[in-house]
Every structure is written in C-alpha cells, then in structure tokens.
Amino acid sequence: MLFTELGLSAAILRAIGEQGYDTPTPIQQQAIPHVLAGRDLEALAQTGTGKTAAFVLPLLHRLTDTTSPLQRITHTAPRVLVLVPTRELAAQVLESVRAYGKHTGLRSLAVFGGVGINPQLQALRRGIDILVATPGRLLDHMQQRTVDLSKIQTLVLDEADRMFDMGFIRDIRKIVERCPKERQNLLFSATFAPEVRELAHTILKNPALVEVARRGTPAELVAQSVIRVDQSQKKEALLHLFQAHGWHQVLVFCRTKHGADALSKRLDQSGIRSAALHGNKSQNARTRALADFKSGKLAALVATDIAARGIDIDSLPRVVNFELPNVPEDYVHRIGRTGRAGSSGEALSLVSSDERIQLRDIERLIKRDISSSVLPGFEPTNARESVPRAAPHPSRKPAAARASSGRSGEGQRNGQRSGGGGRGDGARTGTGGAKPASHHSGQRHR
Ligand code: AMP
DSSP code of 422? Predict the structure, then answer.
C-alpha cells in the first residue's frame, strides 16, 4: 500500500514525500482510515512503529479539509490537543506536526515545563490549531486561563501507559473535563495495563482497536545479545567496544542520573564524545544533547529510562544497556529505540552477576533467551555463575494474563518472532568482538 491510497490531501502527501516516505507502516495503514473517519481509536503501538504519523497525518487532513467537521476556522483556540508524558516527546511530536504540516498553513505549539512560559503565552495569544502538551505545564496554563480548551475536537493521549507510570492520571482527568464532551479521542499505548484499559473505557467511545506490537514484544528487527562482565569492568569493557569498533550514535542506558553522568565523563576522558541525558539537566541542555547526538557530533548519549522515553532518531544503529533496568518492560522500551520503521538494529547488554534476576525477568517477558558471550580480556571473575540460564517459566499466568488483555493473535505473533530469533545469536558478536561462550537463543515457549 502507498500513502497516496489513504485519501490524504495533496499538501500532506507532498510533505510525506519530502520526508522520503512512500509506504505507510502497519500502524499507519490501520489507524489512518479510522482517524480520517472521525472515529475514536485505541491503539497498541510502541515508539518506533510510526505511531506519531499515524495520528498526525489524518488529523492534519481533517483540520484542513473543508468538508470535514474539523474544517478550518480562524486560528484561535486549539482544535487538536495531544497529551504526552515528557518534554522530549512533546518536542518530537511537534517536530512531526510541523514537518508533515508544513504545506498546510496550520499553526502548532508545544507547551512543556522546564522552559520559560512567556514564549508559550505569546504563541497561544496569536492562536494555534494543534497543541502538544505535557500535563503539568498545560494545567499551569489552564489555571492562569492562558489556554482555551473549549474548541478541542480531537484529544490524543500518546504513550498513555507512561503517563500512568509518571503519575499524570489525575492531571489528565482534569484536562479531559475541560474539553468539550463531543470530541474524537485517540489513545496510544505501548502496553494495555489494567489502568490504561480503565482510562480507555472512560474516555473512548466505541473505539476502533488497532494493535501492531504486543506488550513485551521487542521490535522484531533488533538483534539482542548479552556480554557477561564484572560490574567493576563495565566501563573499561564499554570503552574497548567503542574503540575497537569505531561505534557512533550509541544510546547507552544507565539506571541512575549519577551513573549516567559518571559514565559520560569517563567516555569523554577517553576521547569518545558523549553527553548525559537525564531529568536533572535543563531543557536547553537536553535539547542540545539530543541535537548533537542526532547530527553525529556525539558518539554516545548516556541516558536514564525516563529521559530517553520517546527519543526519536532515524535508524539508531545501537542501544547498549550499561545496566539492566529493574522493570523488564523498560528493557523493551529501551531496545525499541533501535530497529525502527524497517531498519535493523542491535541491542547489547553488559550484564554482571548481580543482574541475574533482572535478566531472567526480561527473558521471561520477551519469552526468549538472549544469547550471551564474554569479551576477551574482560571475562567475569566467576564466568560460570555470572549469568545463569533463566529458570524455566514457572507459570505463564500473571504475565500472559495481563499481556493477552482479551486480545487474540499472540500465538501468531510469537510464531513469527521465532523465525527471527536467530538474529540475536552468536553472529552479533561480530560487532562486539566477543566470543560466544555460551549460546542459547530462540523460543522457550511454543
Ligand atoms: P514513531 O513510532 O512515531 O516514533 O516513529 C518512528 C520513526 O519512523 C520516526 O523516525 C519516523 O520519522 C519514522 N517513520 C514514520 N513513518 C514512516 C514511514 N511510513 N516510513 C518510514 N519511516 C517512517
């Protein structure tokens, strides 16, 4: 299928062409017709699937289509509101709105905290069509009566699961109350945890359901591997990998802000240009770090989970987990930064013996063993014990019950994944230079 078959206006098709895209991704193919038709939508899609364009493109069309109920009136109060969990995601959604909408004449704005409020006030006064916002800053504007939500015709909740994780649910409800009752609602989430479902039930009316990746399903094109190494050796092992393989554009994940700062400093000292991205950095520093990383000035961006949420970089080749996350779902989010929209990517985890539980939980969630190896010269002290094989899955009940959420198709999807399981095997060590000491990949279930 081509974008030209979706019924989007010429101005939008032109902008899509300028981005170099001609084929809609699966989420776009499935979601765009529903959004164009004005229906509510409940979409299960991770970052990296092309979900932003899946709602931005049809909403731009509806705002500029004179035959649509959202037809152009003068730019005054916003008619589309996109709520997102983080400032980075707000900036990125705005970037997409502006790129795809550049020939439509529509006005858009992102409001988020951490930056001065005055430029936002001025832009709101001038009038806008599409408002992208984080809940906290939008509430500030609502309290100061500097934003008018009475003309909202479509409300988008993007990354709804993460909004819950970050405690935004009350704010969201307050914002929703101030929008007109008659409106279109679109909800995007990477997971359908029970609280997300409940929100969906209270907000969406007779929604179309669209699903392109299950909870816990890593992007299929991501080759995953583990290098077993002592905690004390991780920094040196990572430096070695950078130097030996001339890595560039690597997104490195740490668990803590302090850890991210320390690692970034160490990389810099060794001539590997990097920046740390975390919540303690000013918005300007974060924006600059991201821009430098995207333009290739930085070889590494060292990030914490929350700060990295929503990072959108075309064809990011490699994600490194310097430490495994405590929450296994975060692993799936992390590796979703690579292998996007059809390009392949690599996710490498440096795993020390004290992370065996986290690794086991991740393997249970993704229902697959990740192949592991050691890096010559950095063998863990107790190699045999450093990463024991995950125990057999005790019971599929809790994860599977939550994962299935009443949906069908899991078996089929897992079946498809097993074919790609070999991508995560010893072949990966070509990039890491590590010899596979043990090698296990593929499906444990089915
Ligand atoms: P998202 O899931 O919205 O974060 O998008 C992931 C990445 O895919 C972004 O870098 C988009 O620019 C890119 N993208 C979106 N739609 C397409 C498409 N139809 N073809 C190729 N790449 C796309």
Answer: G
Separation in Å, CA 232 to CA 352, 365, 381, 411: 9, 28, 11, 41
Q: How many CA atoms lie within 13 A of 113 on its CB side?
A: 13
Taking only the tens place, the pLDDT of each residue in 19-74 is 988 899 889 999 999 999 999 999 988 777 889 999 999 999 999 986 655 555 55
Closest ligand 1 atom number to CA of residue 22: 19
The verdict on the CB of residue 92 being under 6 Å from ligand 1 is: no
Catalogue all structural domains in the chain, each as residue range(s) with its CATH number: 3-211 (3.40.50.300), 218-446 (3.40.50.300)
Q: Does 78 sit in the ligand 1 pocket, CB within 6 Å? A: no
Q: How many CA atoms lie within 13 A of 147 on its CB side?
A: 31
Predicted TM-score (pTM) of the model is: 0.58
Residues 339 and 345: their CA atoms lie apart, in Å, by 4
24 lines ligand 1 (CB under 6 A): yes
DSSP 219-277: -TTEEEEEEE--GGGHHHHHHHHHHHHT--SEEEE-SSHHHHHHHHHHHHHTT--EEEE
Rounded CA Rg of the chain: 22
Q: Is the CB of 48 under 6 A from ligand 1?
A: yes
Side-chain half-sphere of 60: how many Cα atoms within 13 Å? 31
Is-contact 370 441, C-beta < 8 A? Answer: yes
| Confidence band of 316 (pLDDT split at 50, 70, 90) | confident
- The span from the CA of 82 to the CA of 169, in Å, is 15
Helix axes 257-269, 234-245, angle to 10 degrees: 50
Q: Is the pLDDT of residue 232 over 90?
A: yes
